[in-house]
Amino acid sequence: MRLLEYNNNGEFCLTEFIDDIPPYAILSHTWGPEEVTFGDITDGNGTKKTGFDKIRFCGEQARRDGLQYFWVDTCCINKSSSAELAEAINSMFRWYRNAVKCYVFMPDVPRPTVDSEDGFLPWESAFQTSRWFTRGWTLQELIAPTSVEFFSKNRELLGDKKSLERHICEITRIPSKAFRGSPLAEFSATERMLWAETRQTTREEDIAYSLLGIFDVHMPLIYGEGRANAVERLREAIDRKEKGIKYENFLIPFSLFTVTEIEHFVAREKELAEIHKNLGGDGSRRTVVLHGLGGIGKTQLAVAYAKRHKDNYSAIFWLSIKDEDSLKQSFAKVARQILREYPSARRLSTVDMKNIDDVIDAVKAWLSLPHNTRWLMLYDNYDNPKLASNKDPAAVNIMKFLPEAYQGSVLITTRSSEVEIGHLIQVTKLVNIRDSLEILSNTSHREGLMDNADAAKLARKLDGLPLALATAGAYLKQAAIGFSDYLRLYKESWMQLQESSPKLSSYEDRTLYSTWHISFNHVKQQNILSAKLLCFWAYFDSQDLWLELLQHGDSNDPDWLRQLAKNELSFHPAVRVLSNHGLVEVHMSSQELIESRGYSMHGCVHSWTIHVLNQVWDCDLARLAIKFVGSHAPGEQTVQPWMTQRRLLQHAARCSDMLLNNLVIKDEISDDEIARACHNLGLLYADQGKLAEAEQMYERALRGYEKALGAEHTSTLDTVNNLGNLYVDLGKLAEAEQMYERALRGCEKALGAEHTSTLDTVNNLGNLYKDQGKLAEAEQMYERALRGYEKALGAEHTSTLQTVNNLGILYANQSKLAEAEQMYERALRGYEKALGAEHTSTLQTVNNLGNLYADLGKLAEAEQMYERALRGKEKALGTEHMSTLNTINNLGILYKNQGKLAEAEQMYERALRGYEKALGTDNISIYTPALNTIWAFASLFKQQSNLPEARIMYLKALIGYEKVVGPDHSTCQSLRKVLRDLDTWTKKEAMKGIDKLASDPRGGVSRLDSEGALLTSRRYKPFRKLKWR
Q1: How many CB atoms lie within 10 A of CB 922?
Q2: Which of 217, 263, 739, 865 has the fewest CB atoms within 10 Å, i.e. is most exposed?
Q3: Picking from 97-101, 174-178, 746-750, which range would have the lowest pLDDT averaged per residue?
C-alpha cells in the first residue's frame, strides 16, 4: 500500500508499505476531468491540475488531525499495472475500513451557513442531491470507515456520518445500523444488492467490482466482459461464500401458507442476528435450536427470520413437530411443494404418496442431493423430544426426520432446553418496555401508547411475554375498556378474563391459560415432585425460591415436601425438570448470597399456577408457605441477617397478601403458630423499614397470641414490646409508652425483674423517655438495663453493647461528650469483635460516632464516619432503607456546616424522597427522622436567604412535631421562636444583618442517630428477640 506524506519542503511524496502500515487518512470523492495520477506524483507534474486541490486538502486536514500519512485513489495506485489495479480493487474496502479518518470532499455542496430568518441550512438540499451519493465506488467508502467526515466545496466541515445519519439514511435508503459497525452479513444479499441498485460507474463492470468488499468476496477483474457477466460472477462468488457452490437451482418459491404469522413483528434483532450468524456458512449442515417458555415468541421469531433471509435460501420448508403424525403430514406437504416445481424429481416422482414413510425418505433423499445445500428446514414446536429423561412413548426422535447428508440449514423451536443438536439460543422475555407497548398497540389497534401510563403499567405486569401482550391487545380491541380496567380484571378475575379473550390465530389454538398445560403434563410424567413444587410455588412469590427456604418442615408436613427439601440431591433435579421445560430459570442477581442460589418463573406463569393449577385453593399449602417464610426470617445472631431479609421481602409480601385476604384458615396448624409467623414477618418488615406492613403483621400476631396463649404469655409480651418499637418509629409515642409499660409489667410478673426479656423492655423505655425529653428517667432505665445485661450476659454481649451505645447517645444529648465518646468506642470495639465491621449494628455506632465528631468540630473525622456508615448501609440494607436515609441526612448536615450548600441540598432531597417513598405522603408528616430532615432543609434555605421556602419548611416541621410530641414540647417551642423571628425580619426588611435573623437552636445540628432520632433525643432500638427461634 502506498501512502502520501508531506516532505520537508512542503511537497508530497509517496512511501510504500508492505507490513506495519502506519495510521492514515483517506479521501473519498468523485472523479473529475483533471485528476492527479501516480505518474504525475512521481514526475512532480501534478500541482497544476485541478485535482491537486483535493490532494492538498486531504493532506492538510490529515495534518490538522495529527496524521502524517494519507491516501488518495487517483495517485496512490499505478493503474498502468493491471495486477496492481486488481489487487487494489480487491483490497479497497479493507483500506477504507482501516483508515483512521475518511474525508468526503463534495464540490457540489456550498459552505454551511445559516439563514437567520428561518434557520434553514441551504447546504442540506445540495447535500441530498450531491453526485457523491450516486456513484458506485462511494458506497463502500461510506460504509467501511468508522469515521467519515463530510466537507463542502469550501473545505468546511458539514458533519460526520453520525451527526448526519438521518440525512444519509433518507438519501441512501440504507438502515442506520449498517453505518454503525454492524456486520454486513446481517443483511441479506438481496438487500445489499439493492443498496447499489441506482448507483452508477464510469466503466460498466465496476458496478460489480465496487461491491466486492460489501460482500467480502474476491474475484479477478475482466474489463470488457460487460456488466451482466461481471454481476453474474459476483453472484456466484457470493453463493460460494455463503451457501456452497450452486450447480443446480433447486429453487422452491417461498411460502409459509401453513403458518399463521403476525402482521408486525417486534424487536428480537439480537436473536435474528445470532440465528443468521450460526446458520451461515459454506453449505455444510448448520443447526440452530430456539428454546424458551411457551408463549415467549419462538415460532414468530422463526417466521421473521425466514421472511428476512428468504433470498439466502433456495427453499424453505416449514414442518410441525408437535407429534409424529403432524410431522409426517408436514413431510407430505413438502413433497407436494417439490413436485409442483420439479415433477420429475428423483425418487419423489415415483413414490406412492399414500405410503408416508416412503414419502419422508424421498424428501430426505432430495434434500441430500449433491449441491442442494441452500435449503432451510424449520421444525416448529418440538416440545416432546425423545430424550433419556423423557419416558413418554409418544415422544418424537427428530434425528429420524433429518436429511442424512451433512448439508443445509435446520432451525428448531422447542420448550425444552435439553434439545442439544446444534447452537442453542434461549428466547427470553422482551426487556425493553417499548417493545411490549408496541405489541399492545399493534394488537389492540390503539395508538399513542408510548406515553400512556396505564398501558405501561399493564405492560410491566405482563412482563414482556408476547402471548400475554397479544392476548391483552386482542381483548382490548373488542372491549370498550381502558388499560387500567384490563389490569384490574387481570388481578381480580384472571381465569374468567382469559377464557373470554379472543383466540389468537398467530398462536394456533393455544391460550394463555392452556399453553403451559402441555409442559405440565410432560413434567408430571418425568418427576411428580417437580409437578407438586410447581403447584406449591403459587403460594410464594414468583422470583427467587431457594432450597433452604423450604427446609422448615416437620413430621406433620406432606411426605412429598419433606422428600423434595431433604437436600440438594432431591431439590435441584426436581427444579431442573421445570427448567428444562422453560417454566423456571436460575434467578440471576448481583446480590451476594449466603445460601444456595434460587430459581424464578415468569410472572404470567405464576398467575397460571395460581388460577389454573390451584383453581381449588389449598389453605394447607398457604399455611405451609407462611410458616416457611416466617421461620426463615433471620435471628439477631445470624451472620449478615440483612441479606436474607432482603431476599425474603417479596415472599413476605405474598404471605401478607394471603393473610390479609383471609386465604389462611385455622385447621391442623394452631393459631399460635400462625401468630409466630406473623410476628416474624413483622420483625422482617420493621428491620427493612417497611413500617406500615410491620404494623399489620404485629397486630395480627398480637390477636393470635392473645387468643391462643393469653394476654400475659411471654410470646404475647414479645409482640407487645415490638409494637412499642414500631410505634416509636412511627412517631406514636403515647401508644409506644402504653405498649412498653404493658410489656414491662408482664415480663416482671412472668420472668422476674432481671430476666433479659424484661431488660429489653427496660432499655426500650429508656429510648422512649429520651425521645420524650425525659433524660433523667431515660438514664435510670439505661443504667438498670446495663447492670442487668452485664450480670446476665457479660460485658461483651450484643445486648449489653446496645445499651452502651444508647448511653453514648444520651451522654451526647446531655453534652457529656467525653463520656459519650467512651461509650461509642466501647460499643464499636465490641460490635466489630462480635459481629464484624460491616454488620448493621456496627454501622449504627459508626454513624453515631460521626455525630459526636461533628459536635466536637472534628468535621473531617465525622465525614469519614458518615461515609463508612453510608457505604456499609447501602450494601447491607439498600439505598432506600430508613437507616441509610438517616445517614444521608447526617451527611447533608455535615456538608451544610462545611459550607457545601449544593451537596447538602442534594442529600436532603435524597433523604426526603426516600422517606416519602417508604412511608407515603401522609406518614412522612409524623415520622421524626423525616421531620428532622425538613427542619434541616429549612435551616439550609434560611442560610441561602431563601426565606419563603425556609418558612414553608419550618411550618411543615412544626405541624409534624406538634402531632408527634405535643405542642408544648421544647422542640415545638424552638420552632415557634424561629418562625416569629423570621416573620419579624420579613416585616422589617430594611433592617441589616441577616445573620441576626432568627435563633434556630438546631439550625446546624439536626443530625440523626442510627435509628433516626434527633441528637437532642437520640434513641437506639435494640434487636427484637423471639425466644421461639
Answers
A1: 8
A2: 263
A3: 174-178
* Residue 804 near residue 827 (C-beta atoms within 8 A): yes
Distance of alpha carbon 906 from alpha carbon 887, whole angstroms: 13
Cα 194 from Cα 211, distance rounded (Å): 11
SS3 157: strand
Question: Quick one: how far is CA 747 from the chain centroid?
Answer: 49
Tell me the C-alpha distance between 448 and 882, whole Å: 39
Sheet of strand 423-426, all strands in order from the earlier edge strand to the far edge: 315-320, 375-380, 409-414, 286-291, 423-426
Mean pLDDT rounded to a whole number for the chain: 86
CB distance 468 to 512 below 8 Å: yes
List pLDDT tens digits, range 255-291.
887 776 666 788 889 999 999 988 876 567 899 999 9
Model-level pTM? Answer: 0.62
Q: How many helices (H) and strands (E) does the chain have?
A: 43, 14
Instruction: Using alpha carbons, list the distances in angstroms from residue 862 to 239, 324, 846, 909, 1005.
Output: 72, 74, 9, 21, 13
Q: Which of 428, 431, 435, 430 is nearest to 450 (CA)?
A: 435
Query: What is the amino acid identity at position 831?
Result: Y
Report the distance separating Cα 886 and Cα 930, nearest Å: 9
- Structural element, H or E, at residue 286: strand 286-291
Nearest-5° Cα angle at 473, 470 to 477: 140
| Three-class DSSP category at 636 | coil
Residue reference for cell 420439479: 342
Tell me the HSE value of 562 on the side-chain side, using a 13 A CA sphere.
Answer: 7
What per-residue confidence (pLDDT) applies to 8?
67
CA separation for the pair 116, 106 (Å, rounded): 24
3-state DSSP assignment of residue 234: helix
Bridge partners for 101 per DSSP: 25
418-451 pLDDT tens trace: 898 999 999 999 999 999 999 899 888 999 999 9
What is the strand order of the sheet 69-71 is part of?
12-16, 2-6, 69-71, 24-28, 101-105, 148-151, 157-160
Buried b (16+ CB within 10 A) or exposed e, 801-824: bbbbbbbbbbbbbeeeeeebbebb
**Which parts of 114-195 fold into alpha helices (H)?**
123-128, 138-143, 165-172, 189-195
Half-sphere exposure of residue 55: CA atoms within 13 angstroms, side-chain side: 29
DSSP state of 135: B
Residue with cell 424487536: 267
**Residue 348 reports pLDDT greater than 60:** yes
What DSSP string runs through 863-901? HHHHHHHHHHHHHHT-TTSHHHHHHHHHHHHHHHHTT-H
Rounding to the nearest 10 degrees, give the CA dihedral for residues 1020, 1021, 1023, 1028: 150
